[in-house]
Amino acid sequence: MVNDDSPAFHPDLTRARFMPPTSATRGNRALLRFVSGLGRTKPPTDGELVDLGGDVLLRVHRPTSASATDAGARRPAVLHLHGGGLIIGSATQGDRLCRRIADELGAVAISVDYRMPPEHPYPTPLDDAEAGLRWLAAQPDVDPARIAVIGESAGGGLAASLALRARDRGEVALAGQVLLYPMLDDRTGQAAATHPRMLRLWNPRSNRLGWGMYLGAGTKGPEATPLSADELALAVPARRAEQGPAALRGLPPTWIGVGTLDLFHAEDVEYARRLTEAGVPTELHVIEGAYHGFDAAEPDAAVSRDTVQRQLDALRRMLAVG
Length: 322
What we know:
Shape: globular
Number of strands: 8
CATH architecture: 3-Layer(aba) Sandwich
Largest sheet: 8 strands, mixed
């Protein structure tokens, strides 16, 4: 039986009680997809838009300070992947964070506008992320030995998958991965919600919809996926982790952040445990009373600003930025 002796939201998150239990549903997904995609074909402020073809776009942010733009300088880089449950959102969501990364860390920061299901199920979104990584590593002003990935929610899950693929293929050796409340396990459902009435912006029903579409099952749910067990292990980081420590060994230093009132709390804590067991330097930051997407919903809250700063600090260490 689920314990719903619900705790309080974090005191800084004053809008929590007004937030809906989820964002994307079967009924509003198409509309939200359209709205979230507005502006995706316009370059970011002080940045550029790169077309990789096939409707895959990169939003590129480079440092604007004079000292950071010296000719011939090779600098660290960060690849960002946006959230949205794998079925909504766009790379424009990363503009603010990528600009901070570029200016504060002197790094080239890009956000990949990856294609999404149901039109483009796995492995297309991950393939698009990998194409962005290859583009980034090939840039003349980027140090390919100092590239990290960052993502939130679905983007965090894709970032984790990208880190695994990069490790497996050995083309780009990532310096780190920063995962904010990452979406890691297609099996997460109602039982994972310790306090169901406290869920905000993403619930089990939406999670089932997102994973089902990503795994090629449409609205039937992830259990109807046509993927084999081996393919699922490549598509779902939590399933890969269950193969034992060897499956995660060799991944780069990792930072994971998640709130206690997030649907993904248990799966994220478990992934951090398995990474540590595999010998991967891992930092887990658990935010008491924080709900899914709290930092985007309440960006000016002190706990949100602190969480963003912690991610920047983690990137600074991973990329050896002085």
